[in-house]
Design goal:
Its EC number is 2.7.1.39. Pfam families: GHMP_kinases_C, GHMP_kinases_N. With 293 residues, this protein is of the alpha+beta class. It folds into 2 domains: 2-154 and 286-292, Ribosomal Protein S5, domain 2 (2-Layer Sandwich), CATH 3.30.230.10; 159-283, GHMP kinase, C-terminal domain (Alpha-Beta Plaits, 2-Layer Sandwich), CATH 3.30.70.890. The protein is 39% helix and 26% strand. The longest helix is centred in the middle third of the chain and has 19 residues, at 185-203. The chain binds adenosine-5'-triphosphate (ATP) and L-homoserine.
Length: 293
């Protein structure tokens, strides 16, 4: 079985734990029946013993394969990782969604994306990465009980993501601890109103107003202080024509949305100014996770 799952950028500024979209940077996994458990890993994290063991994938795969098939079998797993790890591009969501998709496929259970998404919520409790990882496109998502309720909008092919991937990681768990437990009404309204406005802009393809809509007062600046160069990354991207420039998920990556015609110029200005960071120009993804036997 072959599984392909995209990277995702969550929050998009004010849409904390709610908004996210998928980009065309994919992890691929091949799963084959085998006499013994065996794993191979290429790409991101291949030199990291913890990632090579991939206990996150294996524990979710095994738990769900057993639940669905009633059996414990051995497999060979071949991982090709392209999503940078712990950089805010949804690497953990990609592992969760791939492991669930693999378990359903290998157990021979009919594949239903809504069910994969609801199962993924058991492993990642905010829906803004898992939803686009499953569905592709731009997504608004909320959680009620143990279910994700979400709406997807396909992204047009004339837009690009210019992503800036710093050389240092920020773990989501740590990046959530720097946020306050309580927020003032003014900062809550500031972000709430922009998240709603931004959703309307995405739904109506009104890209030129995103600069205002993508500002945030809930999490972004508080987290960027952990890596102050990010303020300059944002300034540089906006100066060179990005439609919006936001911390991707919990960081450290910065996500910039741009018209295709401007994307390379923005990327080059970022490469020139931040030679220590990786800069990718990526298409947006509308497919989400895909599988084939
Ligand atoms: N390809 C992978 N193989 C094995 N484990 C992985 C892989 N990708 C991610 N992980 C696991 O997920 C953890 C990173 O999750 P974390 O939520 O901190 O980052 P992220 O998902 O990249 O960022 P964000 O949620 O902000 O987008 C890693 O420490 C590792 O345990
Ligand atoms: N909404 C999440 C995304 C990262 O997983 C956060 O900002 O912590």
């Amino acid at each position: 079985m072959f599984i392909s799952v995209p990277a995702t950028s969550a929050n998009l500024g004010p849409g904390f734990d709610t908004l996210g979209l998928a980009v065309d940077l994919r992890n691929e996994i091949i799963i084959k029946p085998s006499k013994f458990l065996s794993l191979s890993t290429h790409g991101e994290g291949a030199d990291n013993p913890k990632i090579k063991k991939n206990s996150l994938f294996l524990s979710i795969f095994n738990e769900n394969y057993k639940r669905l098939s009633g059996r414990m079998d051995n497999f060979r797993f071949e991982f090709t990782n392209r999503i940078p790890i712990s950089r805010g591009l949804g690497s953990s969501s990609a592992v969760i969604v791939a492991a669930l998709s693999g378990a359903y496929g290998m157990a021979g259970v009919k594949y239903n994306k809504r069910e994969i998404l609801n199962q993924a919520l058991r492993y990642e409790h905010h829906p803004d990465n898992i939803t686009p990882a499953v569905m592709g496109g731009f997504n608004v998502a909320c959680v009620e009980g143990d279910r994700v309720y979400s709406k997807k909008r396909r992204m047009p092919d004339y837009l690009r993501a210019v992503v800036v991937v710093p050389n240092r990681t920020i773990s989501t768990a740590r990046s959530r601890t720097v946020l306050p437990k309580m927020y003032r009404k003014e900062e809550t309204v500031y972000s709430l109103s922009r998240a709603a406005y931004m959703t309307a802009l995405f739904m109506s393809e009104s890209w030129d107003l995103l600069r205002i809509a993508s500002k945030d007062k809930l999490h972004q600046a508080r987290r960027m202080k952990m890596m102050p160069e990010l303020f300059d990354v944002q300034k540089t991207a906006l100066k060179h024509g990005a439609l919006m420039s936001t911390l991707s998920g919990s960081g450290s990556t910065f996500f910039n949305l741009a018209y295709e015609k401007d994307a390379e110029k923005i990327a080059q200005s970022l490469r020139d100014r931040f030679p220590q960071f990786r800069v990718f120009v990526l298409a947006l993804d509308n497919n989400g996770v895909t599988t084939r036997n």
